[in-house]
Automatic annotation (TrEMBL):
E.C. number(s) listed in UniProt: 3.4.22.-
InterPro entries: Papain-like_cys_pep_sf, Peptidase_C54, Peptidase_C54_cat
Keyword Lipid metabolism belongs to the record: yes
Protein name, per record: Cysteine protease
Signal peptide: none
Length: 377
C-alpha cells in the first residue's frame, strides 16, 4: 500500500515538472538577477547566468537506494524534500570551500577530484557523510521519525551534527537561536586566532532559522530577504510553501529563483575513490521562480564564510544593511547574552539509531507533511 502511494506521488510530481517546462523561462527584463551574491543582466549575460545556476548541485528525491536503517524506506519521495534542500545548501558551502564560488560545472566532464569527493559525501547510501540515510537517522535525535517531514530548523540542526563527522571538510555549522547571531560564539567555535596568524579559522556555514510572519511572509521583510542574496557570502535560503521545500538561490524583481527537489530519480551507484555519474546532479532546465509573497514564513538563511576576514566582512555588510537601510530580520550581537545558557561548541553525538523508527503507515506519512514548524518557540 505504501509503495503504491509513493509511486502515485512520484508520477504526479514528474507530470507537474514536465508541464512546468512550458511555463518557466527567464523574464525579458532590465532588472538585475541576483544569484548567491552574483549579479547578472539577463539580456547580456544570460549564458553566464545559466552556467552559474546549472553549476549548483541539485539533489532531488531518489528511489531504489538501500533501505534506511536496513528496514526503512528505499525512497524519499513525498517526505524528503527538505532533507534534499539541506543537502543543497551544505553542498554549496562545500563547493565554495573546496572549489571557490567562481567554479563552474562542465557537462562534458573533466571536473577536479574535489568535486567528485563532494558528490560522494551525498550519495544515497549509509556510509556517505551527508546521505539521506545519515540525515534521516540523525533526525531521530531531533524528534523526527525516519520518513517524517522536516522543517528548515530541524534540517539545520541535523547538518550541524553530521558536519562533526566530516574530517575532510572540517566545516563548522553554526545555527542561530532566538533570531540572534552571536559573534563571540562563532569565533569560539571556528576558532578565532588571537595571534598574528588568522589561518586557524574553520570554514563556516552560518544558518539562521527565522519566522518572517504568521501564515504568510510579512511584507516588511521582503526587501531584507532580497538583500541576503546580494551578500557575497550568500549560500541560499531554505524554505518554500506549506509541504513543499525549495532551495532558494536568488531573485529577480519580485520573484525568488529556486532549485526544486520534487523530481524522483534513481539512486546513483559509485565506488569510493571513483568519479560519479553526475548528469542527474545538475538541473539544466530554466531556473524556477515563485512570487516572494507566496513564501511560507518559516525559512533558514544560509551564509558561507571561508575565512575570518570573510566573516568580518559579512558582519560589516549585515550591520550596514541593518543600520543604513533600516532592514532587519535578525539580531547580530558581539557578546553572548548573559541570560542565555553558556555556549558549548558541538561535539560528536552518540549515534545509536537502528532505523526502525521509520513511519510504517503512509497515512501517518502524509499527515506529517504539515506547514513548517514555528521556530524558536
Amino acid at each position: 500500500h505504501k509503495l503504491l502511494v509513493y509511486e502515485l506521488y512520484e508520477l504526479y510530481e514528474n507530470q507537474i515538472n514536465v508541464f512546468s517546462e512550458f511555463l518557466e523561462d527567464l523574464p525579458d527584463t532590465d532588472e538585475p538577477v541576483w544569484v548567491l551574491g552574483e549579479c547578472y543582466n539577463v539580456k547580456t549575460e544570460k549564458t553566464k547566468l545559466l552556467s552559474d545556476v546549472h553549476s549548483r548541485l541539485w539533489f532531488t528525491y531518489r528511489k531504489k537506494f538501500s533501505p534506511i536503517g536496513g528496514t526503512g524506506p528505499s525512497s524519499d519521495t513525498g517526505w524528503g524534500c527538505m532533507l534534499r534542500c539541506g543537502q543543497m545548501i551544505l553542498a554549496q558551502a562545500l563547493v565554495c570551500s573546496q572549489l571557490g564560488r567562481a567554479w563552474r560545472w562542465r557537462a562534458e566532464g573533466g571536473q577536479p577530484e574535489e568535486y567528485h569527493r563532494i558528490l560522494h559525501c551525498f550519495l544515497d547510501k549509509k556510509d556517505s557523510c551527508y546521505s539521506v540515510h545519515q540525515m534521516a537517522q540523525m533526525g531521530v535525535g531531533e524528534g523526527k521519525s525516519v520518513g517524517e517531514w522536516y522543517g528548515p530548523n530541524t534540517v539545520a540542526q541535523v547538518l550541524k551534527k553530521l558536519a562533526l563527522f566530516d574530517d575532510w571538510n572540517s566545516l563548522a555549522v553554526y545555527v542561530s537561536m532566538d533570531n540572534t547571531v552571536v559573534i563571540e560564539d562563532i569565533t569560539t567555535m571556528c576558532p578565532h586566532s588571537q595571534s598574528q596568524s588568522r589561518s586557524d579559522w574553520r570554514p563556516l556555514l552560518l544558518v539562521i532559522p527565522l519566522r518572517l510572519g504568521i501564515n504568510h511572509i510579512n511584507p516588511v521583510y521582503i526587501q531584507a530577504l532580497k538583500e541576503c542574496f546580494k551578500i557575497p557570502q550568500s549560500c541560499g535560503v531554505l524554505g518554500g510553501k506549506p509541504n513543499l521545500a525549495y532551495y532558494f538561490i536568488g531573485f529577480v524583481g519580485e520573484e525568488l529563483i529556486y532549485l526544486d527537489p520534487h523530481t524522483t530519480q534513481s539512486a546513483v551507484e559509485s565506488e569510493a575513490g571513483s568519479g560519479v555519474d553526475d548528469q542527474s546532479y545538475h538541473c539544466l532546465r530554466s531556473p524556477r521562480r515563485m512570487k516572494i509573497t507566496n513564501l511560507d514564513p518559516s525559512v533558514a538563511l544560509g551564509f558561507f564564510c571561508k575565512s575570518e576576514d570573510d566573516f568580518d566582512s559579512w558582519c560589516n555588510l549585515v550591520q550596514q544593511i541593518q543600520i543604513k537601510r533600516n532592514l532587519r530580520m535578525f539580531e547580530l550581537v558581539e557578546n553572548h547574552p548573559p541570560h542565555w545558557p553558556p555556549f558549548v561548541p558541538p561535539t560528536k553525538p552518540e549515534v545509536q539509531t537502528t532505523g526502525a523508527e521509520f513511519i510504517e503507515s503512509s497515512d501517518k506519512l502524509f499527515e506529517s507533511e504539515e506547514e513548517f514548524e514555528i521556530l524558536n518557540v
